[in-house]
């Protein structure tokens, strides 16, 4: 290799530290990105060589994830969260201010290599917006005054680790507690309770509790565990801590404050099915929690709660944490497994389910953070304790992360079945005209539907609740979500790859006042098609907000359509002929296409 | 011997063998379901979505959905055929497809499926992506303008040729076919014109050099018959042109 020995040795160290394991490729690439601000060609070829992978596989991986780059980013790499609620709190204003002060274009590194300022999808700190990341560290509540200081620190090359600590302060954001947040398990107690009851009896208990997956899809947790329990062979436990749905931040709080409960839940699942290994797949945005989580894991190993002979059960189980690198689709279960294997996060074909053929081709239990926490609590306190809350077909409580136009944004633990109106009363969002339940992939409801319930039977959510008041432009909200999905589509299947681009295009055309009735019909027609034909949940839900807002706030759309025009071309005819007009010197009346 | 059963295909009772997908069972019974990313010799991929059907009322891809006893499959309904036309129109709008002067014209499955589905226009605004052409290999070239990301070449090179010449990189609309060589050029890869990967491209993205008009346009494969008529042929006789 032609590179200087030092750099080569560093890549060697990274590969060695990860035991040359192919499934840790993404972790290796993250480290290269962090230390060099990009993944150089040399690193791509090095990893392909030492891991015995095709170069195309490594390059494909680098190009897939938003936080990996093939060209240098700058000594300071600043991202601002582009969630709609961050925008409402002024994220675009502070981002532009910083870019102006530093003399950079958004997304482009400065010529001297000092800095890049970019927007990124929701970073999961919506109740403390505007939030963002600098060199992987999360900052919250950014103000224009802080931006002035930040620009100066960057110009003087002061490392982010020496910036004012209060910029990096993250509140837990908890506003209302319920049984989950009130139940703190002394480390090991839920595992011991499960072992004392007997593992099969604990599985019965989890089934009987009626706990459904807390990521949003709502598949019964007990049934999933039963499926794995009944499947022979090697097993894995994986935790979905990707939390990429804009507006969701409840797993962030659980990871920060309830890590023991999470690991306890994963361990019980592991002992139950005889898994030896588990993985927490945590979104790259939450890297700042890594150290704390590693400490908890080390304490648990020292206490005999992880590793060999867990709680003297004669069974072994241990956990690792893997970090994502900025890809919303990796919250989709099978894409998450692909990413955990060190590949691009492309959703797999189903059937078979992950319970049959999951991580490394083996039976896998994959649950959300909140699901594992609640399962551990059920193992400790029993099914009845849990199922006494909620409603008939949606048992228990749900952690909701609420942001937007409300007086008290934050985390609320409420029984499933709570109405939207009640949720708004709790958070001080009575002035809402619209509530987005479940993030961009969820449902947008207007005032007429505020008596609908947050539950699996009605308005399902992984935890995201966004509140919009009368001053908000719903067309703009839907447009922003359309951009989000077009950016986050993995590109595997035709309807989603192409359809989300087209939806973005028409949303822009309409929001910019260039749309016609025909364009609105196009949105509906493409939207229905993308929902019906896409490969995975991303495409199946991508058109939701556009379709919902067209239905519920039609006047916001029709008022900005070009009423007199039936059709407006997709391109500006005048602009298109400008060059030839200049070359030929024609400026006569006949040449003016839009002369009227 | 595999268990046999029956399912309903557009109202007709068809037999199937346990473990067969909808597409396989329909093909065995002589029913064509349009597809682009599927070939019987490879595991199903499910990316083009052209073969989507309604099975017991739910949309799914016929190439990977197993048939079950008594399953009710809808395929040639106006709704589904309309959606299929949308898939093809989107593929035409996404890439740069120049049928009148593409050397693959008449042998191209995308074009043939478009004819089969009665596509008369592309309906959507064309995206006109800017993609490089790769003519670095002496015997074949890649025109990325026409790649539809079906990954047949990826699978053929990996599973049949055991060379892994191709891969896919990027995300969303930036997703792109990639050649597995340090330079990214086909000429620097282990690709050979005798590879299975050289034969499987359903469009004009990977094409042999110096053979463009050996068969004149007008006498080519899909100039002479509709792609929907091919299904009765065994898959092995269906290969290449």
TrEMBL record, chain A:
Its cofactor is FMN. Keywords: 4Fe-4S, Iron, Iron-sulfur, Metal-binding, Oxidoreductase. The keyword Transmembrane does not apply. Residues 475-520 form the NADH-ubiquinone oxidoreductase 51kDa subunit iron-sulphur binding domain. It is an enzyme of class 1 (oxidoreductase). It comes from Niveibacterium umoris. This is [NiFe] hydrogenase diaphorase moiety large subunit. The keyword Signal does not apply. Its EC number is 1.12.1.2. Pfam families: 2Fe-2S_thioredx, Complex1_51K, NADH_4Fe-4S, SLBB. Belongs to the complex I 51 kDa subunit family.
Automatic annotation (TrEMBL), chain B:
GO terms for cellular component: membrane. Residues 79-118 form the 4Fe-4S His(Cys)3-ligated-type domain. It is found in: Membrane. Its cofactor is [2Fe-2S] cluster; [4Fe-4S] cluster. The keyword Oxidoreductase applies. Pfam families: Fer2_4 (PF13510), Fer4_15 (PF13459), NADH-G_4Fe-4S_3 (PF10588). Keywords: 2Fe-2S, 4Fe-4S, Iron, Iron-sulfur, Membrane, Metal-binding, NAD, Oxidoreductase, Translocase. InterPro entries: 2Fe-2S_ferredoxin-like_sf, 2Fe-2S_ferredoxin-type, NAD-red_Hydgase_HoxS_gsu, NADH_UbQ_OxRdtase_Gsu_4Fe4S-bd. GO terms for molecular function: 2 iron, 2 sulfur cluster binding; 4 iron, 4 sulfur cluster binding; hydrogen dehydrogenase activity; metal ion binding. Its EC number is 1.12.1.2. Residues 1-79 form the 2Fe-2S ferredoxin-type domain. The keyword Iron-sulfur applies. Its main location: membrane. It is an enzyme of class 1 (oxidoreductase). Belongs to the complex I 75 kDa subunit family. This is [NiFe] hydrogenase diaphorase moiety small subunit. It comes from Niveibacterium umoris.
């Amino acid at each position: 290799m032609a590179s200087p020995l030092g750099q080569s040795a560093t890549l060697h160290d990274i590969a060695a530290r990860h035991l040359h394991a192919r499934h840790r490729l993404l972790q290796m690439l993250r480290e290269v990105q962090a230390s060099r601000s990009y993944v150089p060609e040399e690193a791509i070829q090095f990893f392909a060589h030492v891991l015995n992978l095709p170069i195309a596989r490594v390059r494909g991986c680098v190009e897939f994830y938003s936080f990996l780059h093939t060209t240098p980013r700058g000594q300071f790499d600043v991202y601002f969260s582009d969630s709609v609620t961050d925008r409402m709190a002024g994220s675009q204003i502070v981002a532009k201010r910083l870019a102006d002060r530093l003399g950079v274009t958004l997304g482009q590194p400065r010529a001297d290599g000092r800095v890049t300022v970019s927007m990124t999808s929701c970073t999961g700190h919506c109740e403390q917006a505007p939030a963002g990341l600098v060199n992987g560290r999360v900052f919250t509540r950014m103000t224009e005054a802080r931006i002035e200081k930040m620009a100066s620190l960057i110009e003087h090359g002061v490392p982010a680790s020496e910036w004012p600590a209060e910029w990096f302060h993250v509140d837990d954001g908890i506003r209302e507690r319920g049984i989950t947040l009130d139940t703190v398990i002394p480390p090991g107690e839920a595992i011991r309770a499960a072992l004392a009851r007997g593992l099969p009896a604990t599985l019965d208990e989890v089934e009987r509790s009626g706990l459904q997956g807390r990521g949003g899809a709502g598949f019964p947790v007990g049934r999933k565990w039963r499926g794995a329990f009944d499947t022979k062979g090697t097993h894995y436990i994986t935790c979905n801590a990707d939390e990429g749905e804009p507006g969701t931040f409840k797993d962030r709080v659980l990871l920060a404050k309830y890590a023991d409960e999470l690991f306890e839940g994963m361990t019980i699942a592991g002992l139950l099915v005889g898994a030896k290994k588990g993985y927490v797949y945590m979104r790259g945005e939450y890297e700042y929690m890594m150290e704390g989580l590693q400490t908890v894991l080390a304490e648990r190993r020292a206490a005999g709660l992880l590793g060999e002979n867990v709680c003297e059960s004669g069974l072994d189980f241990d956990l690792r944490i893997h970090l994502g690198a900025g890809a919303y689709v990796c919250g989709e279960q099978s894409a998450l497994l692909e990413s955990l294997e060190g590949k691009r996060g492309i959703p797999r074909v189903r059937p078979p389910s992950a319970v049959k053929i999951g991580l490394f081709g083996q039976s896998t239990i994959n649950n959300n953070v909140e699901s594992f926490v609640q399962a551990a609590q059920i193992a400790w306190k029993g099914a009845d304790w849990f199922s006494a809350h909620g409603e008939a077909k949606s048992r228990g409580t749900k952690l909701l992360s609420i942001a937007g136009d409300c007086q008290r944004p934050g985390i609320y633990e409420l029984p499933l079945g709570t109405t939207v109106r009640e949720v708004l009363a709790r958070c001080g969002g009575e002035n809402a005209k619209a509530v987005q339940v479940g993030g961009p992939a969820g449902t947008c409801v207007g005032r007429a539907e505020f008596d609908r319930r947050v539950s699996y039977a009605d308005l399902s959510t992984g935890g995201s609740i966004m509140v919009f008041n009368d001053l908000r432009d719903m067309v703009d909200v839907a447009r922003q979500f359309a951009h989000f999905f077009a950016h986050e589509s993995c590109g595997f299947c035709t309807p989603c790859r192409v359809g989300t681009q087209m939806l973005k295009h028409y949303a822009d055309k309409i929001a910019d006042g260039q749309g016609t009735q025909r364009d609105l019909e196009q949105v509906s027609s493409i939207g229905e098609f993308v929902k019906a034909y896409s490969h995975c949940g991303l495409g199946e839900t991508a058109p939701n907000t556009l379709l919902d807002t067209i239905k519920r706030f039609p006047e916001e759309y029709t008022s900005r359509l070009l009423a007199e025009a039936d059709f407006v071309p997709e391109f500006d005819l005048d602009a298109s002929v400008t060059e030839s007009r200049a070359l030929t010197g024609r400026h006569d009346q006949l040449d003016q296409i839009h002369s009227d | 011997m595999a268990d046999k059963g029956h399912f309903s295909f557009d109202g007709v009772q068809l037999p199937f063998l346990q473990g067969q997908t909808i597409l396989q069972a329909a093909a065995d019974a002589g029913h064509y379901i349009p597809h682009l990313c599927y070939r019987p010799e490879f595991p199903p991929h499910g990316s083009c979505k052209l073969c989507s059907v309604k099975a017991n009322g739910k949309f799914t891809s016929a190439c990977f959905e197993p048939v079950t006893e008594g399953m009710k499959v809808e395929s040639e309904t106006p709704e589904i055929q309309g959606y299929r036309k949308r898939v093809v129109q989107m593929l035409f709008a996404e890439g740069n497809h120049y049928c009148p002067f593409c050397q693959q014209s008449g042998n191209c499955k995308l074009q043939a499926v478009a004819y089969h589905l009665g596509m008369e226009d592309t309906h959507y605004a064309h995206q006109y992506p800017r993609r490089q052409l790769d003519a670095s290999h002496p015997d074949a070239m890649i025109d990325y303008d026409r790649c539809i990301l079906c990954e047949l070449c990826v699978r053929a090179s990996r599973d049949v040729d055991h060379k892994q010449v191709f891969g896919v990189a990027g995300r969303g609309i930036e997703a792109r076919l990639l050649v597995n060589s340090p330079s990214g050029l086909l000429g620097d890869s282990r690709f050979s014109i005798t590879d299975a990967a050289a034969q499987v491209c359903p469009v004009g993205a990977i094409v042999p050099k110096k053979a463009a008009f050996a068969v004149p346009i007008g006498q080519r494969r899909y100039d002479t018959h509709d792609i929907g008529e091919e299904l009765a042929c065994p898959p092995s006789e269906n290969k290449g042109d």
